[in-house]
User: What shape does this take?
Amino acid sequence: MNSFTQKTPSAYEFPLLIKHLLFAPISYDPDQEIVYKGSIRYTYREFRERVSRLAAALIKLGVKKGDTVAVMDWDSNRYLECYFAIPMIGAVLHTINVRLSPEQMIYTISHAEDSVILVHADFLPILESVKGRLDAIRSFVLLAEDDTPVTSSFSFSGEYESLVADAVPLEEFPEFDEHTRATTFYTTGTTGLPKAVYFSHRQITLHAVTNAASLASIHGGPNFHSEDVYMPITPMFHVHAWGIPFIATFLGVKQVYPGRYVPPLLNSLIESEGVTFSHCVPTILSMLLKDPGSQSIDFSNWKVIIGGAALPKALANLAMDRGINIFAGYGMSETAPVISLTRISTDETKLDRDAQIARRVRTGSPAGLVYARVVDSKGDEVPHDDKSAGEILLRAPWLTQGYYKDSSNSEKLWAGGWMHSQDVSTIDSSGSLRITDRLKDVIKVGGEWLSSLEIEDIVATHPAVSETAVVGSYDEKWGEVPLACVVLKAGEDLSAHKVVEHVKSYIDRGLLPREAILLKVRFIDEIDKTSVGKANKLTLREKYSEKM
Assistant: This one.
């Protein structure tokens, strides 16, 4: 007998296509809601029809399999419809980063070979500024908001809602190879031109199904289940909003889309719609908790994944004070993105506050089907002692296979058959990761590696500090020393000496390497940020560190 199972000629070979993520919610809870800004709401049944109408409208505009359709919108129900309709007809969804500079944006539009752009009226001024360089775009579709009049020099093929309303719903979505490219977007690095990552139907489907299972398998947190109410607070242009909208749709949960991120509106929706599950970067959560209107809101049913940057212990403590079930996650643009999540067991929720926080801020355990190694500069695995640091190498079925039209950087990314994360981490005996820095941000003091993130975490615990970022600053004797860029809370006064004393107390307890005593401090008005809300350490180094 052969060692493999022979396929029956008439058997159906099920392709892993995005369209199949819609099957379950339409079948078992078609009346569940999708909400936009609290004013627009409709059911999954209606969502499925709108997706079919949008697909038909795009086909009528001439969109064919393999064409790239770009979207510029706030987080909305329409964006969610584009997540499905565009790839489900075999086209490629390009989620344009609306926070890029016009020059970077025009590069991504050209590089992705966009043929159609769906653009919210708010972003028309950006396109107007580069209009003469958009000749390759075949059609523009306007995403209007309310009945606000729109003035533009562009000739639109139609307005989104009108096109959807007038279209005859597509009865069946086509089937094609599951390895067909479904999405592309661009990394938000701070050096050089943005790099294009891309994902197939198979990769997105496996990411959604596997991480749905991983999230459902955790009892104390961060579980995500069919009775949750989901609201993303990570831009939908950035790594598919961490891929969670696909998971939420697959689970059939109530989904709430807030539009533009305005703290009072976000807090209002959390309260009025009963939001129980979200994800964001640390700066966004900090803004929400600082909003005066948040003080009366009960956050005790809210679970929040923090990613994109390290979860500071001070922020975790503040969130827990407000009743938020907070935990860290990890991923990159190149990983679609979820790779690991902090897992909090029921027993761990009973630990004292410091022990709980120490667990919640970890990078966490790899999700299902993820293989993670931590290796030193020689490529050897480091001991699982949570002390020895090395680079995280990854394998999972949904990792991008390379950078679009960039074979050189693709080879570097996948050197040796493992994806190189450029993240420095330790790993403990249970396999839980703890990122200590980016390779490019590690501070090399006299040949010793010093983690900028660990110092940041400690400086941020000082009661007078609102926000901080630590970078390497040139030093003639040591090569580099740490420099803390510090934003103080309103009305607070603090000296650099007091910050160093605060850090020294942790050194004396053995919680920081002694090299951290070389810390310099600079007080600034604002931490420069990247387009997705991370501290822009390249800019901070250029502006504030000593020059060689």
The mean pLDDT is 92. The chain has 17 helices and 25 strands. Residues 42-176 form a domain with the Rossmann fold fold (CATH 3.40.50.980). The first helix runs from residue 23 to 28.
